[in-house]
Design a protein that fits this description.
The complex is a heterodimer of chains A (459) and B (984). Chain A is mainly alpha-helical. Chain A is built from 16 helices and no strands. Helices cover 69% and strands 0% of the residues of chain A. Chain B is an alpha/beta fold and 984 residues long. Among the domains of chain B are: 42 residues, no CATH class; 155 residues, Dimethylsulfoxide Reductase, domain 2; 133 residues, Barwin-like endoglucanases; 301 residues, Alpha-Beta Plaits, CATH 3.30.70.20. Chain B contains 31 helices and 44 strands. Chain B is globular, with a radius of gyration of 34 Å. The chains are: A mainly alpha (459), B alpha/beta (984).
């Protein structure tokens, strides 16, 4: 009896050989940019410049350029901050947690997901800086020894924890990403001709740190990757937990909630995966990576989105229940106002985009469709932005004393800064796509099924 | 023979030594030894390496660059000869009198380095306008020179012209008229008498922008005394006011204080206050019971009341009031704000019937605060139009603005051959007159006043005149060929101890009492009828009064206690009438309030595009508009704000809704407490039975039995058992919402003015605000009873009742001992003080605004922009004169930092220093904050709770005392006393 054990579907399509992979991945770096790249890049650059002008105007005249007021002292600034930090989360999860769990499918997407993390965190880090009334004194938030007497930072403040959490996260992410890039840079270096592209060759030689592919190099590479993955894993959970404490440790109804740390982490993964999908679905088209980023990858990510989306939904319901169960009228009113007050529409958008639409992923036809996934991932991005807006603005605008109740409305500067960071993000990402190996090819080569299937097909 | 002069530098040159020529060709005597230097074979062994050279180069470039940067130099110029009484850094206080033709107060003026910066009460209390008048001194829109025919002139020219004209008029037998506001100064009246004996045919007409003519006439008819009675609100058990805003704008400045004295529930003596009015006034909002009527019903109801007191049947609305009054003969007060003589005679009859005269109402030592005579004014205008007036001199009045018949006055003015204004401003009236001889501000003037019979108060200058003005009395004397009003004044008071009187600011003489006749007048009778028309009433705002200080940005930005809107006046209307007419108010996306506009026609005059605000408490089918707005020549910040209600007069209104929407600037957008325990309230009856009534503390279940929140705290306590522990008590029963404290805080703490647009964005900077809440028809009890869903309940709770009960709650930084702001600041810019205050270090603040978010009281204010020296905020802090009012003890905050109430820490430091210098302990009674010292009713009490002798200790332990939002356990150092209402 002939029994052939079922083998899993290949993770990359097209029966790629090692050389094919090298060629495909080096192609965007070596070749010329296509029309789509230029269109996207110009658009992003325009948005970015608009953002720069808006930020310069804010720093020049004052935070009054935004729509904030005496009651709502944070709105789009911190919404954007948390949104971008959240987006960053999927990258670390994919590269670190999935590495530890030996999920090989991550190899096609981890490089770009990590790039997204770093660029996302960079956007996020802008906001704590520019939202300050006096950003030129931002160094006050670092515990720098000084001559101001016994003046020191306030270690009780969650904002200070943010400073440490974000800077740690950012540096570990960058190092982790860079370590993974070394063999790939070396591959690019080796392909560059010293005659036609001497500068590029020099650059990639520098970036690859003299990688020569010795067994010892590979051994160290594997070790460092594992150690860094171990270091990065707790960061996936700590960063957003700490960001959530900006709210959870306060006394504002709607903020003061113990459920926030896990709720924020789940929300971050949720939005992070959605952003990875948005980016990869575009990228696989723009830089011809259809064979590497397949519907299989998308489906796996959709399952994570379905799971985290449902958990986030559970958190929303739990919050509502707890506010009622607490018996505290301020809590009860805060959530009643969230759902039925003047910002009911923001709450409705949040609920629809985060809880209802991801449930469509129960249908395998939707889960396995690029188009549907792309649309739904945009929905999630929007929904998660509104989640932060709802938490921040609807809690603040009607807190304890009705005499102080008011509303918030963004100005052109608010909008400009937000769109500007989106532009900045895409500028960075598009430049990355043209200069970096967008897929961890060295790792990817380890899962190419060159042996068996090739011969089988020849039969 | 001429020889050209020859100049020479040395003998060698004189002697044409060839070396001179050689040297001229060769500037460097010796060649620069470059070659030698470079060719030196030892050069490599020198200690200066190439690196060092680059270092030197770098350093010298950097040093030269840095030296080119100059830090701005602010010059502080010391006194060459120090005035004896001025010590830099130490404030001097002078007693003086504030009077501007509308407001009167006996005050203390705080001066620093010769600049008046703050006003404190002396013999009388102060209101918001009096507190703000110190800024009007530094108004750069004031006239800086005399003017002749609209052109800048000088005193010599103007005086010569005027004197010549006056002499000619006098010789021709022409009539000279003085049109002045009420003159309280007996010496000025004497001067006018002197003037008339010199020039003959002189007439003195007094007018009040907000007239009390009716009352004066009624008192003359009834009692033979043409004056306002003095009321003893502290002595009355029942107070009935028919539309008189006696706490706010009507009558003597001490009314508020007296009223509060009679309303202290702790000794069980609390007057019962009824208010019968159509538009909600500050007084009405404080009443125990408020009855809404239309203005046309007032006379009928008063007639009915008198009838009821005589044993007849009372109208159902006033039956209880009539019963209360008749139970308290000689111990009650009935006042009326009407300017109708007949109605006032009726009120006199009621008070006479009750036997209140010389018990609670005094005419034997009356008030002279209003002396204007509407008949005289009307006659003057007729005479002017008939060409019978040859010269008109105005003082402290703005008739072209404040007269209903301004058109008649203006046309008459053209027929007067000599018109002289002594206004401080080139205002609506002054700009129409030939000569403007600017008066000095009261803080630059000498003067006197007799506000009430037998009481004299003095005015002394606290600063040299800022501009080339001259006080009115001095001008008058120079036109009589005399001079020196100061000496004139001293001579006038030769009977008194001048130095002591000026020092104290007042003296009481035993002039003897007036002798009013017993009541003798025909009592008019009115029917209880009511017109169907919409009736219009002029009202007066706490902030603006008659509009004479409308160029004062502090007052423009002072939120009205009732509507909480500023920078505007608007037609107020009830929600129900607004609904009938299709008028709405709504909030736009950033919360700002917008409203419909109407054309309103009263007595044939129409104002177009007047905004309408829905005001709870306004009677149905009535509308009201505050006077003091619609100025066109007030100055840069008062011009073209609102509409002139003086031009309408009271009467029936025709209202036509027009297209368009108006943008209001309101600091409070929600008007009810939403069923929350914010202002705790109870009734007098309940309070007598249970002193903790309305103030039962929430108990929390613990393993150790139920406990109050502060006993189950997670926090470590600060140790405040030793040293000072500054606390503040605010009695919500005594607080009338008058807002004097708000302006006092503005002045003391250099709080910036931000303008209407920023207020609309909810960015007011007030450190101290007075929250005002109206009651709602929907309550938690009602919703439980009628099974209304929480969503509907809260929605309905947002709507105030049509005739609501009002509460006021001053809220400033609560100085929490477990402050939520302190824990969240990343840079520790706000931290806890050893004496219980919550400190704010502006230098350290980076402006994350986290503290402001986490403040449950929302008292922290962020500097959204640079508010000083910024043309976009062109108020007093962007004006060299306006900046002189700044308190040098308090820093002017830069943009990007959070600021808030400091409990006037600069004043606490000052008394501590003073105590240290004089070698004694701090006298706790010296400790005052700007708000507590300005509070006429003593609702705000500040002190050290560790001082056993201070009343604050008792107040803290009082059964009425509670901390706002006490369930949060933030443990504020500010606490409130339950509001008690005297109602069943």
């Amino acid at each position: 009896m002939h029994k052939e054990s079922e083998i899993r579907d290949p993770l990359i399509l097209g029966n790629k050989s090692y050389h094919d992979i090298t060629k495909d991945i080096a192609f965007p770096v070596e070749g010329k940019a296509n029309k789509y790249w230029w269109i996207l890049f110009s658009l992003s650059l325009v948005l970015f410049l608009w953002g720069v002008v808006s930020m310069a105007y804010t720093i020049g005249t004052g935070i009054g350029a935004w729509g904030l007021n005496k009651t709502v002292n944070w709105a789009w600034d911190i919404t954007n901050f948390v949104w971008w930090i959240g987006i960053g989360h999927a990258g670390t999860l994919i590269s670190a947690v999935l590495l530890l769990f030996r999920q090989k499918w991550r190899m096609s997407i981890n490089r770009s997901a990590e790039a997204m993390t770093i660029f996302g965190v960079a956007q996020a880090a802008l906001f704590p800086l520019i939202h300050m009334g006096r950003p030129w004194l931002a160094y006050y938030v670092f515990p720098i020894p000084n001559q101001f007497g016994s003046l020191w930072v306030n270690f009780n403040s969650p904002l200070l924890w943010d400073v440490f959490a974000i800077s740690t996260y950012f540096s570990v992410s960058v190092v982790f990403w860079y370590i993974g890039l070394i063999p790939d840079f070396a591959m690019l270096r080796d392909r560059m001709s010293a005659k036609t592209a001497p500068l590029k060759k020099q650059l990639y030689s520098f970036l690859s740190f003299g990688w020569s592919g010795k067994a010892k190099h590979w051994q160290r590479f594997e070790e460092v990757s594992l150690v860094l993955a171990g270091l990065a894993t707790p960061l996936v959970f700590s960063v957003h937990s700490i960001v959530s404490m900006d709210f959870a440790t306060s006394i504002i109804p709607g903020w003061h909630t113990t459920i926030f740390p896990p709720y924020f982490v789940l929300g971050a993964l949720f939005s992070g995966f959605a952003m990875v999908e948005t980016l990869l679905i575009i990228m696989r088209k723009v830089v011809n990576m259809e064979a590497y980023i397949t519907i299989k990858h998308i489906e796996y990510m959709n399952i994570i989105i379905l799971l985290t989306g449902s958990l986030v939904g559970t958190a929303y319901i739990t919050e509502l229940f707890m506010s009622w169960y607490s018996g505290v009228e301020f809590e009860q009113y805060a959530f009643l106002n969230r759902a039925t007050g003047p910002y009911w529409w923001a709450y409705a958008i949040m609920m629809t985009c985060n809880v209802l639409t991801p449930q469509l992923y129960w249908f395998s036809s939707i889960r396995k469709s690029f188009i549907a996934t792309f649309i739904l991932s945009i929905f999630v991005n929007i929904g998660m932005w509104f989640e932060r807006f709802v938490i921040i603005v609807t809690s603040l605008h009607r807190d304890y004393l009705p005499s102080a109740w008011t509303m918030f409305s963004p100005t052109f500067i608010d909008i400009g800064i937000y769109l500007g960071t989106i532009g900045f993000f895409f500028v960075l990402f598009l430049l990355y796509a043209r200069t970096f190996p967008v897929i961890a090819q060295a790792e990817l080569k380890s899962i190419v099924k060159s042996s068996g299937s090739e011969y089988k097909n020849k039969k | 023979m001429t020889k050209a002069k020859k100049y020479w530098k040395g003998l060698a040159e004189l002697n044409n030594d060839p070396i001179v020529d050689k040297l001229k060709q060769n500037e460097f005597v010796e060649e620069i030894p470059v070659d030698k230097f470079l060719g030196d074979s030892d050069i490599s062994s020198t200690s200066t390496s190439r690196r060092d050279f680059l270092k030197f180069l770098g350093f010298s470039t950097a040093a030269a660059t840095l030296a080119a940067c100059e830090t701005p130099v602010n010059k502080a110029i010391p006194y060459v000869i120090k005035p004896e009484e001025v010590t830099p850094g130490v404030a001097n206080f002078y007693a003086t009198t504030m009077y501007d033709g509308h407001d009167y107060a006996s005050i203390l003026v705080k001066t620093r380095e010769g600049r008046p910066i703050k006003i404190e009460p002396n013999k009388t209390g102060t209101n918001a306008r009096i507190q703000a008048s110190v800024l009007s001194l530094y108004d750069s829109s004031r006239l800086k020179n005399p003017m002749k025919l609209g052109v800048k002139s000088d005193w010599n020219t103007v005086d010569a012209d005027i004197t010549a004209e006056l002499e000619k008029i006098s010789a021709d037998g022409g009539n000279i008229a003085f049109l002045t506001a009420t003159i309280l100064s007996p010496s000025t009246k004497q001067l006018i008498a002197d003037f008339s004996s010199k020039y003959k045919n002189v007439r003195h007409v007094q007018m009040d922008a907000v007239s009390s003519h009716g009352t004066l006439e009624a008192n003359e008819t009834s009692f033979g005394v043409r004056a306002l009675p003095m009321f003893r609100f502290d002595k009355a058990a029942v107070i009935v006011s028919f539309g008189a805003d006696f706490i706010g704008n009507w009558g003597h400045p001490n009314n508020e204080k007296d009223y509060a004295l009679g309303r202290n529930p702790n000794d069980g003596k609390m007057s019962k206050h009824y208010q019968v009015e159509s538009s909600l006034s500050l007084t009405g909002s404080n009443a125990d019971e408020r009855i809404q009527i239309k203005p046309s019903e007032q006379a009928g109801l008063l007639s009915n009341l008198l009838n009821a007191l005589n044993g007849g049947d009372a109208d159902i609305r006033i039956a209880k009031m009539a019963a209360d009054l008749s139970k308290n003969p000689g111990n009650s007060i009935v006042v009326c704000g009407s300017n109708d003589t007949k109605i006032q005679i009726l009120v006199n009859a009621i008070n006479d019937k009750l036997g209140n005269y010389e018990n609670t109402i005094t005419l034997s030592a009356p008030s002279y605060l209003k002396q204007g005579n509407d008949n005289d004014v009307a006659q003057l205008i007729t005479d002017m139009n008939d060409g019978n007036i040859a010269a008109l001199i105005t003082y402290n009045v703005n008739p072209s603005y404040s007269l209903k018949n301004a058109a008649g006055y203006n046309s008459g003015l053209e027929k007067v051959s000599l018109t002289i204004s002594t206004s401080l401003y080139n205002d609506e009236s002054a700009s129409k007159m030939m000569y403007v001889c600017p008066d000095n501000h009261y803080l630059e003037s000498w003067g006197d006043a007799i506000p009430t019979h037998g009481e004299y108060t003095f005015m002394q200058p606290t600063i040299s005149p800022l501009f080339n003005g001259r006080q009115f009395q001095e001008s008058m004397m120079s036109w009589m060929g005399e001079s020196d009003y100061h000496t004139y004044l001293q001579n006038y008071y030769s009977f008194a101890d001048w130095n002591q009187s000026v020092h104290d600011g007042y003296f009481t003489s035993n002039d003897g009492k007036m002798n009013p006749k017993s009541f003798a007048a025909t009592i008019p009778s009115f029917d209880l009828s009511k017109s169907e028309a919409i009736e219009f009433e002029m009202t007066e705002k706490i902030s603006m009064g008659d509009g004479s200080q409308s160029n004062n940005p502090w007052l423009q930005e002072l939120p009205d206690p009732l509507s909480r809107a500023c920078w505007d006046n608007y037609l107020t209307i009830s929600a129900s009438t607004a609904g009938d007419l299709g008028i709405t108010n709504w909030n736009i996306s950033n919360g700002a309030l917008n409203g419909s506009m109407v054309n309103v026609t009263v007595n044939g005059t129409t104002l177009n595009n007047v905004p309408v605000m829905i005001q709870p408490g306004q009677a149905n089918s009535t509308v009201a508009l505050a006077v003091g707005y619609g100025r066109t020549a007030a100055g840069k910040c008062g011009n073209d704000i609102g509409f002139n209600a003086f031009s309408l007069g009271n009467g029936d209104a025709i209202i036509e809704v027009v297209d368009g929407e108006y943008e209001f600037a309101a600091v409070q957008l929600h008007h009810t407490m939403m069923g929350r325990d914010i202002v705790k309230e109870t009734t007098l009856a309940d309070f007598i039975v249970d002193p903790t009534s309305g103030n039962h503390k929430t108990l929390y279940a613990t393993h150790d039995g139920p406990k109050t929140g502060d006993k189950v705290s997670l926090w470590d306590e600060f140790d405040h058992s030793t040293g000072h522990f500054w606390n503040m008590s605010i009695d919500l029963t005594l607080c009338t919402g008058c807002a004097a404290c708000v302006i006092s805080c503005h002045a003391e703490n250099n709080v910036p003015v931000v303008g209407k647009e920023e207020i609309r964005k909810s960015r007011d900077m007030h450190w101290l605000r007075i929250d005002r809440y109206f009651s709602s028809d929907m309550t938690k009890e009602l919703s439980a009873e009628e099974k209304i869903s929480a969503i509907d309940m809260y929605a309905e709770m947002e709507d105030p009742s049509g005739n609501p009960e009002t509460v006021y709650q001053p809220v400033m930084c609560q100085h929490c001992n477990h402050a939520p702001c302190e824990t969240v600041c990343p840079v520790a810019a706000t931290s806890h003080g050893a004496e219980g205050q919550n400190h704010m270090a502006y230098n350290r603040c980076v402006g994350t605004r986290y503290c402001a978010n986490n403040c449950p009281y929302k008292v922290r204010r962020f500097n959204w922009f640079q508010y000083s020296d910024n043309d976009k905020f062109d108020f007093n802090m962007n004006d060299d004169y306006g900046k002189m009012v700044l308190n040098p003890d308090v820093v002017v905050r830069s943009r990007g930092v959070v600021e808030k109430c400091s409990m006037c820490i600069q004043q606490i430091q000052a008394i501590k220093l003073d105590a240290k210098n004089t070698g004694r302990t701090v006298r706790d009674e010296d400790a005052q904050t700007a708000c507590s010292s300005a509070c006429s009713t003593n609702a705000i009490v500040f002190g050290d709770v560790n001082d056993n002798s201070h009343q604050i200790q008792g107040l803290k332990k009082d059964s009425r005392s509670y901390q706002l939002l006490d369930h949060l356990n933030v443990d504020p150092s500010v606490f409130y006393q339950t509001k008690i209402r005297n109602k069943a």
